Structures are given as C-alpha cells and as structure tokens.
Amino acid sequence: MTLKSLTPNNRISLTELQQSFSGKSWQSIIPSGLSDELLIKLAYEFRSLERYMLSDEAGEPPSLTVPTYVVAAFLAARRPQGSSKRQVQFSELGLELAIRAYLREMERVIVDRITGPDGHPKLLHCWPVKLLQAGRGDYAGSGVMASRAAASLSR
Questions:
Q1: Is a pLDDT exceeding 70 seen at residue 89?
Q2: Distance from CA of residue 50 to its chain's centroid?
Q3: Angle between helices 65-77 and 92-115 (to 10 degrees)
C-alpha cells in the first residue's frame, strides 16, 4: 500500500457533509470523531485550499465551501446551550486560522490512526520480542532488557 492510494476517488459534497453533521454534537464534528473515509476526504479538501493559499501561482482557487461549512458547523455546534443566536460570525482572518487549525488536527488524527497514539506502528506490538530485537545482539541474559521488551509489548 502506498500513501497515494489514500487519495479520495471523489470529492465530498455539501449534501454528504450535511448528512454527516446533521443533529450531531460538536464531538462528532472534530477530526477524531470522523470516519476514516470522511477524514481523508476533508483533509484532501482542506489541504488543496492550504496549498493554494501558500503558493504564488495565479489560477482558479479551490472552493472555500467545504472548509467553511465544516468550520461553521463546528462553531455552531459549540454554541452554548440555550443560545438565542442562530448565526455564526467570524472574520476572514478568523476563518483562515480556524481552517488551518482544523487541518492540523486532521493531520494529527490521521497519523495517530496510522501509527497509534503512542507513535509506534500498531503492528509492532503484535510481533515476537526476538523479532523486534533482530540485529541488536543477544539480550536474553539481561533482566532489564527483558522487562523493557515486555513493557513495549503490553502497550
């Protein structure tokens, strides 16, 4: 598998977003609450926009619709209970900062899902201790190394 294979086959639509976010709490709108498929699609949309914002190239800008909708849905869901306002307001700079913050969080969640929250690839915890120690000498006589190996397997 290559990372290129994670590129979404189709772009996300507002209808799909509305169905995903409708009636949900703010916890389900943050990146850690999203499904893998939705997370990858949103990361692609947000990253396309960020890439355009950081480049000096002229041309057709990517749509702001999806990132703006996601940020607005999150902010609207975070409104205090009983709030009479039905609108969410933010400046252009505030929107840019919110989009960048949401993108950073999506990237963190994607890496966590791939490697696990402790930063180690998930499959390594299933490997036998001797395989993990391959090429590092014989640690069989070392009680310290045995306890470290056991601790790494229990994560």
A1: yes
A2: 15
A3: 90
57 vs 13, more confident: 13
With vertex at residue 78, the alpha carbon angle to CA 24 and CA 105, rounded to the nearest 5 degrees, is 85
Hunting for tokens 């505030």 — which residue is that?
Answer: 94
User: What global pTM score does this model have?
Assistant: 0.64
pLDDT per position as a tens digit, 114-125: 887 666 655 545
Q: How far is CA 67 from CA 33, 78, 99, in A?
A: 16, 17, 6
Grade residue 126 by pLDDT with cuts at 50, 70 and 90: low
